[in-house]
Amino acid sequence: MKKNLFAGLAIWALLILASCRSEPAPEVTATTFYETELFRQVQLAGVFEDSKTFVDLLRDAPFEELEQEYLTAREEPGFDLRAFVSEHFREAPSRQAQFETDTTRTMSEHISRMWDVLLRGPDPDSLYSSRIPLPYEYIVPGGRFKEIYYWDSYFTMLGLVADGREDLAENMLANFGHLIDSIGFIPNGTRDYYLTRSQPPFFSMMVALLAQRDSALLPEYLPRVEKEYAYWMEGASAIGAGQAVNRVVRLQGDTLMNRYWDSGRTPRPESYREDVELAAELATEAEKEALYANLRAAAASGWDFSSRWYEQEGEFASTQTTELLPVDLNCLMYFMEDLLAKGYRRQGEPGKASEMQLRAERRARLIADLFWDPGEEFFTDYDFVDGERTGEVTLAGTFPLYFGIASQQQAAAVRSRLLEDFLGPGGLVTTLKASGQQWDAPNGWAPLQWMAVDGLLRYGYTEEAVAIAGRWLGLNRKVYGDTGKMLEKYNVMDTTLLSGGGEYPTQDGFGWSNGVALGFRELLRKPEGSRIMPE
To answer: Among 71, 83, 305, 484, which residue carries the largest CB count within 10 Å?
Structure first.
């Protein structure tokens, strides 16, 4: 009797298990790949050391089908997540992976060869890729960055022009015009997970750079500059004094300034695991969402990450980017307003020209006053929530010199601090703090060397500018000689060591380092009166 009872129970249990397995998998409710359980589990499990690897892989089917298949398959005994990913995802081929450096060539010769290695496009449409396709050829930064990036590209274009590759520079400008026309703004990079944010707005600088060689480009691209300006100022008319919306902040009356912003409130897809782990100790979902918003805004700044954004000394999780008016961003907005005023004037629209010129002049006056820290004798960011300067001294403080906003006295003070506190054997350090973040000491970055050097030239500090450019180029050549590579960033304080810090290893390629190296090469050939800033 007992045997029959146990047998019956066993059969009943097997039937229950079978019925469980035959139930349909949960319905797929995600509206994007980054909302799927498959995406979440792959990123949290650390299937790839670099979270960006997974979001850049090509899928073999629509994400809804992959999610449904995953939800079903994971219930099977012996399910292997890595094997599932390997079956359905693959990496796009890379020219750079197949490139071997010829160390018998000079650094400049190497850079000239690298343009074709870093060349991409035109892009085919792809249903199962995160890539945003572009219609013309372009240069990618290199390494893990296999798509075009916004502010990187301006400095890459400087090198292309210096190297006689204006055709590629013009194609890149056309691609950015296409993004503004088709999306309404220029995203951080040409991946769909960047569609919630932009980057430092250098598009007007690109237009001005190439318009020096072809004056027809300004009227051609003016509507795109105007459209980008509208994106950065979106919502301004609906806010009162002390309020902020999207990327714009109203201080008082008609005084408008800008901040970095990302419309997302979730972990960044390309750094999902890292963001989740950083937020793990926060008590509430609201606190986590606030952190994610600030991390995303810091990524929009291009300075991801830096103690520049910290509210509390040494606390990465206190990043407060959305509460700050960045000095560099507002200088770029000044240039955009000034270029629009000039464009309207040339088109015979004096009313629009006067209004935009008034905005530019008002912003310039505010930058010279609001961002100037008399105690530090340097330009710093402004916390519009607390109503005070941050006191964080960084190379962003050189932007008012680059754009001619600083007074001569302010420029002299900035020059002194650069030489006394920022200048190392290999160039200018990004900040004076060693936080472990990549946009801090001891690292130096090509775009900031460029802005500082050209800013010094604008105020007549030619000897100092040439010295900084020479140290940077010397470090570039040393590292190239040691490694055969141009790197994304450099250790300017100890030239015997490579740079480090941040969420990923130092990358090689590298677009903006190549561009600035060639630009500085030209500068050192004719330093007197050799400002490169587009007028």
So the answer is: 305
Report the amino acid identity of residue 276. Answer: V
pLDDT at 531: 56
Collect all residues with Cβ–Cβ distance below 8 Å to 39 and sequence separation of at least 6.
33, 54, 269, 272
Judge whether 306 and 439 are in contact, CB under 8 Å: yes
Cβ(200)–Cβ(150) below 8 Å: yes
Three-state DSSP class for residue 308 = helix
Catalytic one among 123, 262, 304, 464? 304
Each residue's pLDDT tens digit, 254-288? 899 999 999 999 999 999 999 999 999 999 999 99
- 40: closest CA among 71, 72, 78? 71
Is the pTM of the predicted complex or chain greater than 0.90?
yes
| 386 in catalytic set | no
Condensed to tens digits (0 to 9), the pLDDT of residues 476-524 reads: 999 999 999 999 999 999 999 999 888 888 888 999 999 999 999 988 8
The single residue listed with the structure tokens 């047998």 is: 7
Query: Which one is catalytic: 337, 338, 488, 508?
Result: 488
| Whole-number Å distance between alpha carbons of 189 and 260 | 15
Integer Cα distance of 50 and 60 in angstroms: 21
Per domain, the residue ranges of the chain are: 2-90
Q: Is 488 a catalytic residue?
A: yes
